Amino acid sequence: MGVAMPVLAGRWTAEVPEEGVAVFLIGMRINRPLRVDRWWPVLTAMPRMLRHLAEHPGAGLLGSHTWLGRTTILLSYWRRVEDLLAFAGDRDAPHAAAWRDFNRRVGGDGTVGVWHETYLARPGSAEAVYVNMPAFGLAGATSPVRVTPATTSARRRLSGPAPR
């Protein structure tokens, strides 16, 4: 278990930096649950990658959240898309070896599915609201800021950065 984070009472939003943040979703789906030999290596590869990224903060990972189930999801926030792509292609980081291993062990046999999606969140193109939550998601990866009259609705938050 991680460290308990304090709840931020009231309504909060995220202050997205002008240059934006890369939002990366990745996961796997266990299609044949009895083939543990195929899905277990895929499932255990991500914690190794997250440990590596925690040990190398300069790699650009700002924060992440994981949900486990038949379909797993890792939601992560990156300083820049270029940082995410650099990590994925870095032969000295654990992603490249895990991807090679997946293709060798599973390939297209259908026992395990993998997926990812990448988005660029910029002020005016992304909005968030958190009520009585710890600093979570985009606000946890960037900066939580209290909702004000200028940011009270999704429409207003999507209109761009609030005047300071």
The strand line-up of the biggest sheet is 3-4-2-5
Q: State the helicity in percent bands.
A: 25-40%
Radius of gyration: 18 Å
**How many strand elements?**
7
H/E order of the elements? Answer: EEHEEHHEEHEH
The biggest sheet, with number of strands, parallel, antiparallel or mixed sense and barrel status, is: 4 strands, antiparallel
Distance between the termini: 37 Å
What percent strand?
A: 25-35%
Label the overall shape.
elongated
How many separate helices?
A: 5
Structural class comes to alpha+beta
Average pLDDT reading: 92
Runs in which pLDDT lies below 50 for 5 or more consecutive residues are none
Care to give the gist of this entry?
This protein is α+β, with helices and mostly antiparallel strands.
Kindly describe this structure.
The chain is of the alpha+beta class. Helix content is 31%, strand content 30%. A four-stranded antiparallel beta sheet has the order 3-4-2-5. Strands 6-1-7 form a three-stranded antiparallel beta sheet. A hairpin with a 3-residue loop joins β3 and β4 (71-78).
Q: What's the structural blueprint in terms of helices and strands?
A:
Elements: E1 8-14, E2 21-30, H1 36-55, E3 61-67, E4 71-78, H2 81-89, H3 94-105, E5 112-121, E6 130-133, H4 137-141, E7 144-146, H5 154-158
Antiparallel strand pairs: 1-6, 1-7, 2-4, 2-5, 3-4
